[in-house]
Structure formats: structure tokens, C-alpha cells
Amino acid sequence: MKLTILGCHSATPRENAHTTSQLLEVQGDLFLIDCGEGTQMQLRKSGIKFARIKHVFISHLHGDHFYGLIGLISTFRLLGRTAPLHIYGPKGIKEIIVLQLKLAKSWTDYDLYFHELDGQESELIFENEKLTVHTLPLDHRVYTNGFLFQEKPGLRQLNRKVADSYQIPSCDFENIKAGNDYVLEDGTVVSNSELTQDPKPTKSYAFCSDTAYKEALVPLIQGVDLLYHEATFLEKHQDLAATTKHSTVIQAATIAQKAQVKQLIVGHYSSRYKDHQMFLEEAYPIFEATHLAADLKSFEI
Amino acid sequence: MKLTILGCHSATPRENAHTTSQLLEVQGDLFLIDCGEGTQMQLRKSGIKFARIKHVFISHLHGDHFYGLIGLISTFRLLGRTAPLHIYGPKGIKEIIVLQLKLAKSWTDYDLYFHELDGQESELIFENEKLTVHTLPLDHRVYTNGFLFQEKPGLRQLNRKVADSYQIPSCDFENIKAGNDYVLEDGTVVSNSELTQDPKPTKSYAFCSDTAYKEALVPLIQGVDLLYHEATFLEKHQDLAATTKHSTVIQAATIAQKAQVKQLIVGHYSSRYKDHQMFLEEAYPIFEATHLAADLKSFEI
Predict the structure, then answer these.
(1) Which of A119, A58, A117, A108 has its CA nearest to residue A85?
(2) Which of A77, A61, A79, A60 is closest to A137 using CA atoms?
(3) Would you place residue B108 in the very low, low, confident or very high pLDDT band (cuts 50, 70, 90)?
(4) Which of A6, A226, B76, B213 shows the greatest Cβ crowding within 10 Å of its Cβ?
């Protein structure tokens, strides 16, 4: 898994402060998470072949998280896209996009699927052979979800030396990697544990923006490899965090610490802070493995 | 009048190629014309105090001309705007903006007025003490208007030396500048033509994007000081211009020449052209006073 931050600032896009959007690469598949105004320009800057994006997840319908979506959909058409595109987001997102296409007498030459969300509990919303995506219901001023990306366990890893010592033909390898024992011609059973090792460890990523402090998240994201949690404010502005239903960096770090995640990235900074070093200084005493999000910065998971 | 090009490229915004938006300053008032995605970032780059914008004119509902509008409206709220904002654009624009505000449970703390257009003839849509704005119906794939900005004639210019020679008190100056003669105490009439000169010449600006070649524009923009006319294609792509209802640069120059405008700016370049010098070379034989639009370039009128 590789995460690229396209924008990590709140409210309004500025020249060097783009609003929320992230690109998650999982075993070659690209997933876009949120899409603030200008995201398509950030995608171009990132150098990623963004036509490969097939799934877009929108947390909520505040502008700094989705005003760039209609432009991206239009650009995909202009670039000659034919692959289907799936949009996951709050109820209402389809009406907005379709109305804009209709009034522009525009269309897409590719299939555009909307998966509208209105559940109040975490639910599975996407699954393929490599991973699952679950919603993470958040606590914000409008209906908002975070998203949990979890790789599925792969096949067991064949110990080729041992397999060859039993002269096992390669056509049986997939069966063994799936966990089965092997029976030799003389009837001897070679146990799977002798032939294989555990699969490579799976990775997981949780995206949580925007939200007030919500302890109910803790069991849902327990032990994830990487957590992005919004941290709009420093402690001195905790009153603002409360009234706007955002988090302070201390609250973000507390969630990370309670959920025993491996790494934490914070972002969605209020524009009142010119320097973000204080976010680290407030987080460190609670959760040391904290990193600052920055536009076009990548993280390997 | 001063025109600042914020973006002048067609279709999709790229890092150094912003879609259509222009800022026209008339005697201290700011008018925004079209608002492609990222316009608010271009406004910040321009250094102009864009909170002063009170009137926004949208030519048509294709994304490269208005996807930045909802973001600008939201940003005005976040910046604490209280002054009213007036939006002029095709029927449907209100529905799009209001739907997005509603689904975001958002609002504006300032009054937001929509003036929806659906006329087929040129009409007066705005007037204050300094200028008038008329629509310029264009020929595009969706309902589209250009806009004609015309300064009103100002007051006559007082010849202060002559006024002083008659010992005319300054409280009577406004009356004289309005065109009236002056009667001295002994009953002598001093004619206005002796006391004043003609008002400063008025200026006019016509914005025409997007459109196929439309000769009916010529009488509407006759003699304007500055014409912006879209020129999406070079002559070798005239077939594309025809099918997409855009203009070639030769067509733009022909309109300028027939309307005897003083200066022409061309823009809305197709992304297929990396270098725009050829646009000038094709325009010059027809209309020499042609200039290339460029992002963040300003023109004094």
C-alpha cells in the first residue's frame, strides 16, 4: 500500500494549500479518497496515471472534500475514458453530479456508478480479490464516513525447496498455497505446514476526516498499520473544534493511542496555522509515531 | 477599465493552464466573468482583493466556465463576507448552487441573488451609475451568452481657469459639469461650451466565449475598445471547430475586423497546441491588433 496526500488543508484551497484528497494504491489498484477543488491538477502534478482510478470514496458533501469531483468526471470523459467509474458517497451525491451533467448537456462515455451511503453503522461497501473497504461512521456537522481499507490475506507461501524434494508437480502448487496438505503416490500425507509458510502480512489503512472526537472509532480501527485522522486545531482552539465538530491534534493522537495503530498521519489543518510543527509537539507525548500530512507527500505502508 | 485574464484555456484545468475566468475592473468596481475550477486560487495569485467582487457573469454551464463558482461562493462565506453577491447566468445555475449548499447543510451569511438568463436577443442585464452590461447571444452547444460592458458617458470636464475668471463659486461646478449654462449676477449667460470640454471618452469591452462563427455579433460589438473572442482552434482544425461549435482564430479575427474593434484578445486554446504563436500568425493578416490571452496577464483598456 502506498498513500499519496494530494491535499490536506481545510476550508478553502489556496496556492500551496490544497483541500482534502488522497490517493491510495493497493497492489496496483488506485483508490481516490475525497476530491476537493483542484484535485485533478494535483493528480497531474503527482505524476500518477490517474486514468487508472476506478473507485472514488467521498467522506461528506462539504466543498473542501468534493467540489473537484464533477471536474474530474468531466476530465475523464475528455481524456477518452472507457473504463467504468464507481463513486461511493453520501446520499445526494448522484443528484448533484447528474444535474450538472444534464444542464451542461454533457454525458460520460464510460459507465458511471453511484453507491450512495446512508448507514449509521460500519458496513462493507467494496470488496475485490485483494481488499475490503468498510465505512467508518464519523461525527460531523453533516453525514460523514471515514473509510477502512484492509488487504485480504494472500495465499500461503510455498517452500519451493521442500516441494521439490517430494517431486511435487507445479500444477499442484496453487492447491498447496491455498492451505491443503499433499498426498504422495504411496499415500503418504505431507502436511501443509511442512510445505508452506504463513502468507505475507496484510496491511490496513483508515481514513478519518472530518470528525469530532469519537471514541467509538477505536474498536473499528484497532491495530491498523496507518491511520489518517483529521487534526484541524491545536489545543488552544479546542473550543472551536467542539463547535465545528472537528478534532484537536491531541484528540487525534488519543484515538491513535487507544486503537494501538502503528502510525498516525494528521492533517486538515485550519488555515490560521502557518507552521504545523506545533501539531507534532502536541501529539508526541500521547502518540509518538505521528507524522504531518503535506501536499504531494507519500507514505509507504 | 482593466482586464485581468485568470484562465484562458479550454476543457480541463492543468497546472499552468487554467480554464476560463476574467476579472474586469471598471472605475474601481470588480466584475468576474466566468469561473472555471481553481478560479479562486488564481484570484489569490493575482493579488487582487477579490472580496470586492459583487457581480459574477457566467456565459454557459460547461464545466470549464463555471465549476469554480460554488467554491468561490463558499469561500466568500468562510472569509466573513457580508456584501451581497449577484450571479448572472443561464437558467439552471441557481438550482445547481442551491442544491450543493443544501446538501452540505451550508448557507451564505451574505445575500446571494441569481439573475437567470434565457433570452435569445441581446438585453440589458445590469446597470449602475458607471456602466451597463448587455448579453451577447452566442452560438454554442448549450445556451451561451457573451457580455458587453459599456461605460456611461461621465460629466463634462470643467475648464477651471475659465470658471475662475468669471468668479463662479465651486458649489455651482456640478451643475455646469452636468451641461448647464451659468448666469452671472448681471444676467449675462456664460455658455456651457465656454466653461467645459467633452467628457472623457467612454470605454467598452466585449467578452465572447464560447461560440461558433456568428456574424450577427458584428453590429452588437461595433467599435468596442477591446474584444475577447474565443479562438479554440487553428485553421487546420476548422472541421473540429465546426463540430464542437467553437471558432478558429481566423474566424475570431474576421469578427474583429468586420466590427472594427480597436483591439482583439484571443484565447480558450485547445490543449493540443503547446505554443500559441501560430494563433497570432494566422490572425495578423486579417486583424493586426490581435493579442494572445495568457493566465494572469492584464490589459489596460
Answers:
(1) A108
(2) A60
(3) very high
(4) A6
Q: Where are the alpha helices (DSSP H) in chain A?
A: 39-46, 63-66, 69-78, 93-103, 160-165, 173-177, 192-195, 217-220, 238-244, 249-258, 277-283
CATH number at residue A226: 3.60.15.10
Q: Structural domain tally of chain A?
A: 2
User: pTM for the complete prediction?
Assistant: 0.91
For residue B213, the enclosing domain spans 2-154+200-300
Q: Which chain B residues are within 8 Å of A14, Cβ to Cβ?
A: 41, 44
Residue from B59, B66, B100, B245 to probe the interface with A (highest A Cβ count within 10 Å): B100
- Out of B197, B220, B254, a domain closes at B197
Is B147 in the same domain as B269?
Answer: yes
Cβ–Cβ pairs < 8 A, chains A and B:
103
Residues of B in contact with A71 (CB under 8 A): 12-13, 37, 63, 67
User: What secondary structure does DSSP assign to B234-262, as a single string?
Assistant: -GGGHHHHHHHT--BHHHHHHHHHHTT-S
ipTM of the complex: 0.89
State pLDDT tens for residues A57-102. 999 999 999 999 999 999 999 999 999 999 999 999 999 999 999 9
Looking at the fold, whether B187 and B240 belong to one and the same domain comes out as no
Q: A141 — contact with chain B (CB < 8 Å)?
A: yes
Give mean pLDDT, residues B283-292: 98
Please tell me the predicted confidence (pLDDT) of residue A240: 97
A150 and A168: one domain? no
Please choose, from the candidates B90, B30, B83, B18, the residue with its C-alpha nearest in 3D space to the C-alpha of residue B55.
Answer: B30
Is A14 in the same domain as A103? yes
